[in-house]
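Lab notebook, design round three. We kept the backbone fixed and only want residue identities now. Task for the bench partner: fill in a sequence for the structure below.
Input structure tokens:
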């Protein structure tokens, strides 16, 4: 028997500064706080389509890639992606927008060093 996957439910991330991280995702995507979890220094943020479970961890400074590459969000208003990222001063990777066969992507870093892909077409058009 195979399980029928409808999508990724949420991504769970360790962060250095919970407030700063929540502000970043709110300014870029409009993500709202869905649940405050002060007992574990965490919050769940997002919207109906995407959620992040964020946990502030003492001693965590920046993510160093070890098996995990990036989180990708498909954005309907991709034409505004570069300007939105520049407005909040998100570090832009790979010299800007990359062209793929059926889509385009913009890669940035969040305040914790996690790479975020902003994708024009869901699943790259696959």
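Proposed sequence:
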């Amino acid at each position: 028997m195979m399980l029928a996957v409808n999508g990724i439910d949420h991504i769970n991330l360790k962060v250095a500064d919970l407030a700063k991280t929540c502000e970043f995702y709110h300014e870029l995507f409009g993500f709202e706080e869905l649940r405050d979890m002060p007992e574990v220094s965490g919050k769940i943020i997002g919207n109906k389509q995407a959620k992040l479970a964020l946990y502030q961890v003492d001693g965590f400074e920046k993510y160093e890639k070890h098996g995990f590459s990036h989180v990708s969000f498909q954005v309907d208003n991709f034409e505004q992606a570069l300007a939105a990222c520049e407005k909040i001063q998100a570090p832009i990777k790979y010299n800007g927008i990359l062209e793929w066969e059926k889509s385009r992507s913009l890669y940035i870093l969040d305040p914790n060093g996690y790479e975020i892909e902003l994708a024009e077409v869901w699943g790259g058009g696959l």
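Keep this in mind before ordering anything: The mean pLDDT is 94.
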